[in-house]
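Good morning N.,

You mentioned wanting to compare the apo and holo forms, so I went ahead and generated the holo version with S-adenosylmethionine. This is what I fed in:
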Amino acid sequence: MSEQGKVHLPVMLSEVLSLLNPTPGRVYLDMTLGAGGHAQGILEKMQNQGTFIGLDRDAEILKIASENLSSYNICHFCHSPFSKASQVLKKMSIPQIDGVLFDLGVSSLQLDQSQRGFSFQKEGPLDMRMDKSQEKNATDILNKYSEEELVRIFREFGEESRAFRFARAIVEARKKFPLKSTLQLAQIINQEVSFRKGKIHPATKVFQALRIETNRELEELTMALDAITRKLAPGGRIVVISFHSLEDRIAKQFFKKKSSEGVLEILTSKPTLPTREETKQNPRSRSAKVRCAQRTST
Ligand SMILES: C[S@@+](CC[C@H](N)C(=O)[O-])C[C@H]1O[C@@H](n2cnc3c(N)ncnc32)[C@H](O)[C@@H]1O
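and this is what came out, ligand included:
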């Protein structure tokens, strides 16, 4: 995608484009711009006519996207959490949008940079902030939260059945030394359970929970879905790509509620899933689910 080889393969691109249906002359908002993979597909369909706004809370990624998309002249790039998208639109004097995309979670660009601390497979500081200007990071959570709070986040955000055991091990370990690195945490978890080949790594859910808590991901999504639906023009579409059940549940329940209120019409009665071919080519797509709804004219 760029000359530096900074690539994030957009997940389910053709399915997303056919649901979002980008049309020249209209207004589209990418809430999770990342390196701009989906954005490029949307912009191609828009044929350089209309307005495209790309948000990301990660300033470094936003810079990469603006380079990758420099040949399109209808783009506006904004460093903002998506929960504040309405304020961004207000500042730009854009009253309504015709489509919005959420591609949730982290980008492979963020995962691949060990110093960002997202991966339990690479040594790095336990950071996990998508927005580096934010104060609290994963180290603060791990060292300052009480055992009960750790249990709660591992259960709620990781759906981890061994939450109590892992939280206890972390609290015991931090009495001896401060927890600072990704591999240090992975090792503490590993010592509690034996890693069986072919099974998911035992630290997967703890890392997911810490990331969600650090970035307040579920609150962000809940707030953003509600706020942005108010900005959708009649017939405007909202597409959500989620990667775990917690995110998917929020999108599903939100669409259901708004559909019962007559505000949205659900266009995917069941989530659209990736093809077998895509999951082979891009393993990250394996857990993806796409849901779409359309603003009614009421
Ligand atoms: C999965 S990637 C998006 C990849 C992109 N669709 C592409 O094709 O290149 C998710 C991106 O959303 C950003 N992000 C996640 N949560 C966000 C939030 N609450 N507000 C703004 N950006 C967010 C992340 O920083 C990351 O760059």
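The two ends are 41 Å apart (CA to CA).

Happy to go through it together on a call whenever suits you.

Best,
F.
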